[in-house]
## 1
Amino acid sequence: DWQLIGLTKESWGDLHVISSIAFTAAVVYHLVFNWKPFTASMARKTEGRFHIRKELVASVAAVSAVSLMAIAYLPPANWIMDFSAYTKGLWVTAPAYEPPYGHAEDSSLATFTRKMRIDTGKALAELRANGLKVVDAKSKLKDIARANGTTPMDLYVLIKKFEPTPVKVALHKASMTPEDVDVKFSGTGVGRKTLKQVCEETGLNPETAKGRLQQAGVPWDGEEKLKGIANGIDTVPIEILKAMLIEGYKPQKS
């Protein structure tokens, strides 16, 4: 539930969309109502012939270069993407504050508790016992949080104790399946973590992870983030994680 300059993530998204539409509309308006001067100017500059002007070459080259850098995850484009991921990660101040799955705040309390295997009645009672006003379990977590001047994550922290004890999976053994990795790590933001961070959080020996990745044809750089590595071999971060945790696993192409 982060905010920047008083605006929520949703507000920034709305502002971005509206600004883009307004900009596009202004371009179309300008072009349509100035069509004759525009075509006359083009005719004068080309003098009836087609000329490839240096401005055109420069603009096409610039746009192509930026696009290729973004697609191939190359600097300096990837510096901007890494900085974006870094700033998002700043809001997760501790492992306990890692969202359990993507956009969990948009789930109703009933849906969230069902996904997390928490008794909905106990969750409601606990929230109300802590002075929070909750109309019913159909309300979204973000709406409950905003109505009570708190965050969806703080609501989760209050009811987290009702989660069943997770079955520990031997992360360093080959017995772990790709499905196990999907269930445990999908939507947890592994892409913005480095290989070393993943090893620390899973208890996996870095040398073991390095050997498995090399066997799978994945370059090892303990300081590089999974997202960057995945982009370099046309796959997704969770596939890199599977190669680290499962002996002999080959990342699937995206």
## 2
Amino acid sequence: MLEFVAHTAPVLSLAFSADSCSLASLARNGEAILFDPAGYPQPITEPVTGGQWIGFLPNGWPLIGDANGLTAYCEGSARLGGSRLRNVSCCAAVDSTLLVVGVGQRHKAEPGEFLLLDLEKNRMRLPRISEAAGVRSVTVHPPNRMVAWSNGSRQIAVWEIHKPDHRTFNLTHSSPSIALHPEGKWFAAALDYAVRSYD
């Protein structure tokens, strides 16, 4: 077992790079660290404000969602989605040109949105879907261009983005994490002390 110890606050979010060569971690105090395969830590940036999520772009750049928006890091930083994007709670790549972005707070009800970000034009695409209690988790099934998100209103929405409407599933609790099955026919949701799957 390897244990990578470098943070000075509890870790909130983790992600492996697609090439399996890096592990990114984000702590509650905003520390963002990139670990190489041997566990050597390298800070990605100065601590970020209101950091909630960390991951990677399809091109391998580390990506952080925080109170100030969505920022990619590689020999500097690049703000994605414009200056009006705030409080990014989660993100996932549909393909190399499109990201789905959740806005809100992951652990409390606060107004937010579910958004599509065009990486080639670095701007939001329509529609922008309002969520009264914010978005807590997003997941994608790239082969079907299917996306799903959970909100703070005890619901999960599932949408094939080439279709006009999404389907909504009511839950007993708000789900902090969801996952789509590789076949795209099922999704699983974390609900309090349980995990439930839905067709």
## 3
Amino acid sequence: GLKDVVSADEKDDVIFILFNRELLDTWLLSYIGVVVMAITMSTLDTQTYLFTSTVLKNFVPKDYTKDRAQYIKLSRIVIILAMVVMGLIAMTISDIIQFLFQAMSLMYILGPIFVFTAFGWFKSNKSTDLYITANIIVCSLIYIYMFQSGLLEDMMMTIVPPVISLVGCIIGSFLSYKVFDNEPAIH
């Protein structure tokens, strides 16, 4: 709401202006501050944990994570490394909250794949896996290009990569059926 009131050169500093100019009562400013921190920290700790779990379960050999003590030790190391890297990234970005929410929206690309898998619409075979992997890579590259170009500022543009992912999943599934297998890929 404040972005419409402030001048064009102040649009990136709306939260700072809100607190610096004392436009609201102290108790309301405190509430806003706590809510912004809670939203940000909730997203950050969840994403850090998911990143750590993904790295440990998919990229670290099973011998290193087979017992709970070793898993916890490696988790702590990966979490600290992830926080340090994200801290370094945060120092170079002016609006970290906007960056984090845009970066995490990359996960929307996986939405159609999760839905298709959950309902059993994907047949597990080599060709389907190849199309899905290619689809994720292409959609991720499109997303990264849009993110770097500033095209994700408009919320409608955030929908473009998931729609491409959905269409890619459908096409890949049918191509898998038509080209490589004579069994239905979607049932």
